């Protein structure tokens, strides 16, 4: 459909919308005045990854259109565990681990949305503030009575686990109820009328909107994004080497930039729409030129949003110097007092988790020193040497 509100028109034109409840009513509300919407992020690890970026960018577009975004830190829901897309229960974390993860995660949002006290300034809340104060029997009477087990069994998060004959604990089964309660609580506290999330959250989101209607008699809406995959079918957020973290203490700026630079040709235009602020006209112009230049623009724009313009420019300069035969400032470094073996160098630079893994990298022909393939694990590398693992990871050996 053609949307009247700038917010939904932007999401539609850039490829964000998969499912939407009562699109016409939401579009009218967003066109008539400011609305408040939220997305929740559980604290299962010390950082979010690029698979979360689609959701974060939706909050950015919501605010850019004059509306108020709420970032919900899942201090409470993390204690329950979201069964969506999982064959097994997530490991249960203690309060200290959840608090540490939350403190680390929350910094990622500061570059994407503006927090403050203004009408459209972003708000960050922790759902543990209300979930951990719930009394069980009153909660069952007030909230639980609105949920049908028959319907809950049809939701993908439950049905797929049962179809695969994988166990689903009663704790996990309650996740959709506590997430729905989050939406109700946010509606009561902030007038929140929109929940957004990935397509795997559709059942949970619809449950929350329905709960608001039943308990408060007010209308609320849900919006989900499609599952974002690369052209080769792999999920965003994952690589062969593991998760692509947003936090720089888990992934250096240069590595983050380089991952975007290595985007498949078929994905560049789509990722420019999803993961940068470039207008559609600017994207058309970028795509009309050289594809490698377009990839560099994607990498620099995406890195600037997440890590800052200075980090993005430094990574781009490093790449130009490195692949032109030089050595850039932003490359990972390993300081040594004297030459070390290629195995120690690979481990020291973080390209291998152990000497055994480094040995396999050398045996497989994936290690290079100053551009030359290494076939002997006893090769020594001293200060000034450039070590590469595969085609995408490069580091410098420097003197202590």
Automatic annotation (TrEMBL):
GO terms for biological process: tyrosyl-tRNA aminoacylation. It is found in: Cytoplasm. It catalyses: tRNA(Tyr) + L-tyrosine + ATP = L-tyrosyl-tRNA(Tyr) + AMP + diphosphate + H(+). L-tyrosine binds at residues 38, 175, 179. The keyword Transferase does not apply. The keyword Zinc-finger does not apply. It comes from the Bacteria. A motif ('KMSKS' region) lies at residues 235-239. It holds the Pfam family tRNA-synt_1b. One of its GO terms (cellular component) is cytosol. Keywords: Aminoacyl-tRNA synthetase, ATP-binding, Cytoplasm, Ligase, Nucleotide-binding, Protein biosynthesis, RNA-binding. CDD domains: S4 (cd00165), TyrRS_core (cd00805). ATP binds at residue 238. PANTHER family: TYROSINE--TRNA LIGASE, MITOCHONDRIAL (PTHR11766:SF0), TYROSYL-TRNA SYNTHETASE (PTHR11766). Belongs to the class-I aminoacyl-tRNA synthetase family. TyrS type 1 subfamily. Homodimer. This is Tyrosine--tRNA ligase. The lineage of its organism: Bacteria, Pseudomonadati, Pseudomonadota, Alphaproteobacteria, Sphingomonadales. The gene is tyrS.
